[in-house]
Amino acid sequence: MKRIISYYCCCLFLLFTVSIAGASPVDENTARQVALNWMSEKAGYQITADKLTTAIIEKSNTDTLYYVINLAGGGWAIVSGDNIAFPIIAYSYHGTYSLQDHPVQFDQWMATVSDEIRNAIQEKSIALPVAESAWGRLNVSTEAFSTKPMSYSVAPLLSSTWDQGTYYNASCPADAAGPGGVCMGWMCGNSNGAGDEISQLSINRLVFTYLC
After folding, report:
1. 38 three-state secondary structure
2. Model-level pTM?
3. Largest CA distance in the chain
């Protein structure tokens, strides 16, 4: 779960404005339908409703902040619990979302998301038009849903999975195999057989030489 979230969580913008109006809570059935339509569109084929399994609900007092909808066979989507925000907060086609074993940076990011949704609900803000449009498009029946053509697709830049347990945002991480080392190792390992070549990396005018 830890590695899957690190690599396959595709984060989207939360869209808020400070205009005064009533927010509208999202119930679980709506969250499931929105997740179903979104995941089907991104997958390029229709995912049936029976593939939606467990739902995890994050609340603050009586306010629902977001739902996590798991898919049978792998994959999940996090759906906003209020139409104050963009419908989809994050999604993945890999793994199962659980309440344990998250990277600390993911938990910190989700705590920020929760705070933003909670504050927007309390202040009775309204969503920006792009969020309203997304809710209107996604919150329809499967039969009525019209998919949006994908303009492009970006595959993961790294095929490796890795894990760095602490100090993820420090200048000198505790784990020697930090993101820089992993990226460089992956590039060296995928250099099409040029194993004896020297690769150089320039950071802030300092040149580091690697023997790949």
Report:
1. helix
2. 0.66
3. 64
Angle between helices 129-138 and 28-43 (to 10 degrees): 90
Tokens of 16: 């808020």
- State pLDDT tens for residues 45-62: 889 999 999 889 999 888
Amino acid at position 212, single letter = C
With the CA atoms of 192, 198, 199 and 200 taken in that order, what torsion angle do they form, in degrees rounded to the nearest 10?
Answer: -170
- Compute the average pLDDT of residues 197-208: 42
**DSSP helix/strand/coil, 119:** helix
Q: What percent of the chain has pLDDT over 90?
A: 34
Query: How distant is the alpha carbon of residue 69 from its chain centre?
Result: 13
The answer to whether 77 and 23 are in contact (CB under 8 A) is no
d(CA 179, CA 167): 12
Q: What is the mean pLDDT of residues 97-126?
A: 88
